[in-house]
Amino acid sequence: MKATKRLSFFLAVLFVGVALAAGCTALRKPAPQNPPESQAPAPAAPSQEAMPTSPEEVSRIASNISAAASRVAGVNRATVVVAGTTAYVGVDQKAGLEKGETERIKREVSGEVKKAEPRLTAVYVSSDPDIVTRLRRVAEGVAAGQPVSAFDNELAEIAKRISPTSR
Q: Do 116 and 96 form a contact (C-beta atoms < 8 A)?
């Protein structure tokens, strides 16, 4: 009797082990054979052209982005730092705006930044006064000739505090 129970237990464990080892993968939905013609075309991929690394060119791009962001209704001034393919934008907004209006401005600024520089892969926009001040200090340091890499820790801290508004 004990041998029969042991054999049954052993077979059950073996069966479960084989079932798990065989891989219980989720079924995939089959791809359509002929996609409908009415589907919208895929969005254009970001430009494959590399971002410039010369300080003068990066400064020119940051100025263009700042000007584009400043044109958004509700923005007094924008401070921009470009690090690689990421733009950090600090927005000084007009006084007395509601939270919903602030979020709209951030979205619009993000869109304008992406239009002004399509090679960017991430755009961080903040209207928090502390972050705007920190970005101003970084921008002043870069304008004074320091490399952006000297501010990597500061930019990483800023990125932790805000989420990207565009990827």
A: no
- What's the CATH code of the domain at 96? 3.30.70.1350
Q: Which domain holds residue 150?
A: 55-161
Indicate whether 112 belongs to any domain.
yes
Residue 34: its pLDDT value, please?
Answer: 61
Q: In what order do the strands lie in the sheet with 75-83?
A: 75-83, 86-93, 122-126
Structure tokens at 151: 């501010």
Residue 35 belongs to a domain: no
Instruction: Give the total number of structural domains in the chain.
Output: 1
Residue 149 lies in a domain: yes
- The amino acid present at 167, given as its one-letter code, is R
CA–CA distance, 146 with 56 (Å, rounded to integer)? 12
User: Is 37 a domain residue?
Assistant: no
Phi, psi of 35 (to 5 degrees): -65, 145
Give the pLDDT means over successive 10-residue stretches in the chain (167 positions). 79 74 62 55 53 76 90 90 90 82 88 90 90 91 84 88 65
pLDDT for residue 17: 72
Please tell me whether the overall predicted TM-score, pTM, comes out greater than 0.85 for this model: no
